[in-house]
Structure formats: structure tokens, C-alpha cells
Amino acid sequence: MDDRQERFTGLYDRNYRRVLGYALLRAEPGVAEDVASETFLIAWKRLNVLPEHPLPWLLGVARNMLAKQRDSRCQRQALVDRIAALTTAQDHLIWDIAEHVVDRETALAVLAALPEQDLEAMALATWHGLPPEQAAAVMGCSTRTYNVRLHRARKRLGKALHVEIEEGTALAHLRTTRPQFSEET
Amino acid sequence: MSNQRRLPRDGEDMNDRMFADLKPMRLDELTDEAYRRRRSDDLARAFHTDHSLRPSRRLSMSRRPFLFVTAAIGAGLAAAAIVVVPDMVSTSVPGPAASSPSSAQSLSTRNVSARSFLLAAAETVAREPAGSGSYWYTRKRASEPVQNAMTEDGAEFKALHAKFNAKMAELKDKPAELKAAQKEFIDAITKLKEEKLPYKAVVSYTTEHWRAADNDAKDRMNDNQDVKISFATPQEEAKWKEAGSPMLHDDKPETSEMKTMMPVSLDNPSLTLQTVADLPTDKEGLERRLRSLHAESRKKKGSFADDYLPQTGLDLMSAPLTPGTRSALFKVLAEQPNFKSNGQVTDGLGRTGVALTYQSTGPEGKVDFTMTFDPKTADLLEYSFTNVGKSIPEWKVAFEKMGWAEKAGERPQG
In sequence order, what are the residues at sequence separation of 6 or more whose Cβ sits closer than 8 angstroms to the Cβ of residue B13? Predict the structure, then answer.
């Protein structure tokens, strides 16, 4: 393996799962895997000129590719729908352990009502850990626009959850009727 | 141990933490499994793919306004399907109009085949002089059917939300029923977000893109400009109003600058602003190269003619090719028997052009891929993809301008 191959292998090993994870939340698995593989083939061609932090660039390529898929396998799928499709009992268990103020279904119900672009802004920040300038590069918008989307998403989420908490004796009741697994340390 | 809920000390922190916990665990399992399964093949595929990438440099290419050609078109070509308005076609083309070539009107009614048009275009573009610049500029107007409304602004969404809130209050002491109501709400909202509109609307918007020839420079994009929604009929618009006139597309323009270094053709990662200038300039050489690129592309399982060439040809048509390569590309396209002519058309910007359609079979059935060319310069004016049987294209793009610019933000002269 030469130097170039070694560098590419490192890039692939460090980032493949994150790129596929991003694509899986926008498309069904077959399409998502194809998009991830093609993204890395493009990266191989551009290896010498990749940015110092390649993840935003990789996600941007994947996003662009997903946007250009115009066949029936790529009909719009709401993020919440993809989350629901991938949710298992384990996720409910973890949610309960975390002791959030509302239950998982309520949180999803709140998210369902947010614009998809705002959800993507939150996902890039919290799931991918990208700072605003990098997340903006992925979404193809200015950092200012990205910050507006992120702020709006947080605000709407916060407002919706606040309402749920204020009015949510029902939710509180629901929570307390569920088994609790958490040990406070 | 505590059964008490954590209350937020900081709203944003709480929201982010909650959002983070919504990430499904299964996602990691799927990505791990795919990583193990695909790693060897993906690496091997990359290592067997040419990775030559020329160092960045100032690029030059040929572009110039109309040059009236006197190409010699074979006498046997003016047949089959009909194209109108080939002003650039040789005056030696046999036919009634050949007797009065000086008349623009008579030229505009001459009929030739798609193949003749493409070969004449090959002659026209081959004679264009070189141009150069630091940024490849395109300004295009895209139109597409609106698939989904921006749900959260619609009356239906607001009604669902109000109903859900009422139900929450009503069922506050009935946890099982409350849970069912929440699920019902999520399903309904998701369905609303994903469902097709009960009326037909088309959104159009303009995008300007400066692609940097220098790998170290940033691209600039002015996107989502001048957004317009249109309806096929007043009845369709009335249905939209009945639905509460929901917003159908974000109407705010966006400007971004970034180093994208994207290839000019997603199906061909090795074709960049730098490398397209090195493509062969003869038909045989270019076709060999394209077939080789097809063999290593993600479309290798599909046919060269139906699955690969239309999209790649289109990508190249809107890229800074040399005059020789552009001419060779027209010749390669002329060899495709499936290209039919639609004759004279008016594009989305009101310009007269000659439309050539290539029908292929995609995952959703037959698709008409149409390219419309300026009859004088052979410039690509517009392209579209339309599912056969549908009246509205799935995707239509009109090129208002393309060419070299010296700076990002500056438009080409002429």
C-alpha cells in the first residue's frame, strides 16, 4: 500500500460511518450505501486537495448526490419518519434512563412539526458535532443562514417543549407511570 | 436515585441533549455492518481508479458568439425526424430552402434530422476561439414540480396541531390513550410532510454559480433567487387556496462561499474543471474515454447509451470544454440513434431553440430527456427530464449565461 492509499484508507476508516449515517437519515439503506461509496470515490480523486477537516466536504458531496437522485427510491422522507423507521426498544430504554422532561414520542411529535432544514441544522450540530461554519458548508448556505436555522429550530423546539411542560401534567403523569431505570450518581 | 424529571437549566442545552438522544442506536449498527461489508470493495474500487488530478491553473477554453458555418453535411442525413431552424446548418444541405440561403426566414423553416443538427453543431463549435478565466460562471433558472408544501405553515398542519393539543388535555389522565394519540399525531404529520399535493404547482428559482478553477479558491453561489410559484390552471390555484395557501417553497435568497472542489459530473469523479480541458478532441478518442469512464462509474451496470451518456453529455455541455472536445461530443451524440428532434421550440425564458429528445427507460418508466440548443451558436439553452405521459417536466433548467469570469461575483462580459 502506497502513501496515497494509506491516507485514503485512513480517511475512509475515520469517516465512512458518519457519511453513511448522514445518508441513512435521508434515504433508504440501498441508496444511502451507494451514495456513501460514490462520495468516497470522489474523495479518492480529490485526495490531494481535500480540506484539512474533510468531514463537512464529504457530507456536502453526499448531500449534493442525494439531492440529484431523482428516482423513485429517493422520494422525500421526513427525518422524523427515518428516525421512527430506525427506532428500536433499546432507544426507548436509553431515553428512559436519560430522564428527559417528555417522553420520546412527544419529542418526536414536536420535531415532526419543524421544517426539515431546521432539523438538518440541529442534526449536523448535535449528531455530527459540526461547528456552524462547517455545518453551513454541508448545507450549502452561509454561516449566518445556518445559525438562523439552528436558532429557529432550538427556539421552536424549546417553545413547544415548554408548552408541553407547562400544560403537560398529562405527560408528567405518563412519565411517572413508566418504569424508571436511572441511578443518579 | 431519582424519579424526578430533569428540568432545564438552559433551554438550548436541554434541547440539544434531547435531540442527541433521539439518534437511533440502530443507525450505528447499520453503519458498522455496512462498513465491514463494503470496506474492501470500496477501497479496491478506488485503488483501481485513476486519480490523476492536474495542479490548479488558470484555464482557457473557447467560447465566442455565433459563427455561421458552412459545414458539409452528408446528403443522406436530412431525413427521419424533423428539426427546424438550424441556422448554422450548411447551405449545402439539400432541400427546398437551400435555394435561398440568404433569407433568415427560409433558413428557419428548413427541416433536417437530429443527426444533421448535431453534426452541424459540431462544425459550429469547433471554430470558436479560446476564452479564459479564473471562475466558470453559470446562471440558470430551474423549474420543478412542488412535491410537498412547507407543512408547518399550512392550515392542515395547524388544524392537526390544534386537535392534538386538545387531545393532550382531554387524555391527560389516560396514559395509554395519550400515547396512542401521540403516535397518531406523528403519523399524521409525517404523512402530511411526505404526501403529494392535491394540486399541481411548479417552483422556479435562479442560481448563479462561480466555480473556482484554482483548487485553493472558494466557489460562490447565489441561490434561490427570484422564486416564483406557478399553477397550471386557475383551478389548481383555487385548490391551493382551499388548502389554506400553504407556503410551497422557501423564498429567501441564499449566498454562500466555500471550497467545494466538486467534479463537473457526479457520475465521473475524475472530470473536474481542470481535467475536462484534457478530454480528447476527436470523436473516436472521446467516445473511447467516455466508455472507459462509464466502466468505472456508478452507472456501469446500465447501458452506455441509455443510462450513462445522456447525463454525462449534459454535464459536459455545461462545462468549460475545449472547442475540439465540444465538437467531438456533438459527434458522439450524433451517433446515438435514439435522439429525435422536436423541431423549433420556445424555452422557459422565451428563446427560440431546437429541441432534441432522447427517450430512455428509468426506474420509474420511460423518461424523455430533452436538450434545447441555440440554432445559431449551438449553445445549450435548456434541458429537461419528463416522465413519459406527464405534461410537466420533473426537472427543467434554462441556462441564462455561462462563461468565464475573472472574479467571484463578477459576471462574464457579453
Answer: none
